[in-house]
Design a protein that fits this description.
heterodimer; A: about 130 residues; alpha+beta; five-stranded antiparallel β-sheet; 5 strands; B: four-stranded mixed β-sheet; about 15% helix; globular
């Protein structure tokens, strides 16, 4: 009986812990969820300090380097598009605002010679 | 001597490293700097060739040429035929010159109307917007609108694009229908001189009697409207009869007075 109560309490605790996370879902989470739903799973994203945004994470997806930043408003994300090009460096890439998220993709390893993956990732991201 | 060999080897290693690390020629053309593009476009052969399928704004390290690209708010937008470079996506056939509403194609809402100056049948990756500007006939779009001054002004320079596509071997659209009324390619004032058979009428010369001033005056009578016979398939668009301008010459007759000249009175 004690065991059952413990399990129920643990489940309740888990669900309570999960609810605030849902509320805190960031624009970046929506982007990653859209990619993952289409079987484009990025590597674990890690905090990335950049000059043009405060909340950015970087990783890789399909051989591309990716930086996804969350902003307070879509206008803020849009304003960061051009500064985002600096993160790409000397490579093919794209820096586009999608809602309040900024997505920056860089093909530094020439993994996407015709840009189809970059195009797909950008088109999957919610507006 | 023994020290020279390792030195040469290190130079060789350094040289190899530099060559491997060096960007391609096309990248060098851009100075290794990012060049902004928007929409799909060909990739230079030196960069691998083919098509870049990124529809939105993006950057590369190679330059865009001036004939196949137009500036769209700081980014290069490709106005040529992507099928010529291996594009395998959805395509729409056009015949002759036409406007391109770049903002509609790229979906950024920054108004920008550019023009395609490809003379014959060709493809684009987009259909024109619905409206009276275009007529669809035989699965090809024909521009039947009224081109603005900007189109006419840039036409001589931009028609060089035909020379770019002429040597390219690819499956062009076959357009076998008669062009609709008002098609820009059948309008005398817009028929490409290079695309027409030109028959020259004999030169007329009118001599005008004696003059008083030493100036040659050439009176140009504008050429009559071109005569257009039918609409051909391909680049040839018709037969034009050009009449050379009538030249009216006034000759100066100098009268010598054998030293008795007293100046003008």
């Amino acid at each position: 009986m004690r065991a059952i109560v413990f399990v129920v309490m643990a489940l309740a605790a888990c669900s309570k812990a999960g609810e605030p996370d849902k509320a805190k879902a960031t624009p970046r989470d929506a982007v990653v969820a859209a990619w993952t739903a289409d079987k484009l799973v990025p590597s674990k994203l890690a905090a990335a300090p950049v000059a043009f945004a405060k909340d950015c994470q970087s990783g890789t997806v399909e051989g591309l380097d990716v930086l996804v930043c969350s902003f307070a408003t879509p206008a803020d994300a849009k304003a960061a598009e051009v500064p985002g090009l600096a993160w790409i460096g000397p490579a093919t890439g794209a820096s586009q605002a999608h809602g309040a998220a900024l997505i920056v993709l860089a093909d530094r390893k020439k993994a996407d010679p015709n840009g189809r993956t970059i195009n797909r990732l950008m088109k999957l991201a919610p507006k | 001597m023994g020290q020279i060999y390792p030195m040469r080897r290190s130079v060789l290693v350094l040289l190899t490293f530099v060559l491997l690390a060096a960007p391609s020629l096309a990248a060098l053309a851009s100075g290794g700097k990012q060049v902004r593009y928007v929409g799909i476009h060909p990739i230079p052969r030196s960069e691998g060739g083919g098509i870049c399928y990124i529809e939105g704004p993006h950057v590369h390290l190679f330059d865009a040429d001036k004939v196949q690209y137009r500036d769209h708010h700081g980014a290069s937008y490709f106005v040529g035929d992507p099928v010529a470079y291996g594009y395998d996506g959805k395509r729409y056939a056009y015949k002759g010159h036409h406007p391109i509403h770049v903002d509609v194609v790229v979906g950024d809402g920054d108004p920008d109307e550019e023009y395609c100056y490809l003379s014959g049948p060709h493809y684009h990756s987009f259909a024109p917007p619905e409206g009276p500007e275009f007529t669809l006939a035989g699965d090809a779009y024909f521009y039947v609108g009224e081109p603005p001054h900007a189109y006419v002004e840039a036409r001589p320079a931009m028609m060089k694009i035909d020379a770019v596509y002429q040597p390219l071997s690819y499956e062009r659209p076959v357009v076998e229908v008669s062009a609709p009324v008002g098609w820009i390619g059948a309008r005398a004032e817009f028929v490409a001189p290079s695309a027409a058979v030109v028959v020259e009428a004999p030169r007329e010369r009118v001599m005008v009697a004696p003059p008083r001033v030493g100036v040659t005056v050439q009176g140009f009578i504008p050429a009559p409207p071109s005569i257009h016979i039918g609409v051909g398939i391909g680049v040839g668009a018709g037969v034009i009869v050009h009449e050379r301008p009538v030249i009216i010459e006034e000759r100066v007759r100098i009268k010598h007075d054998h030293g008795r000249h007293r100046g003008h009175r």
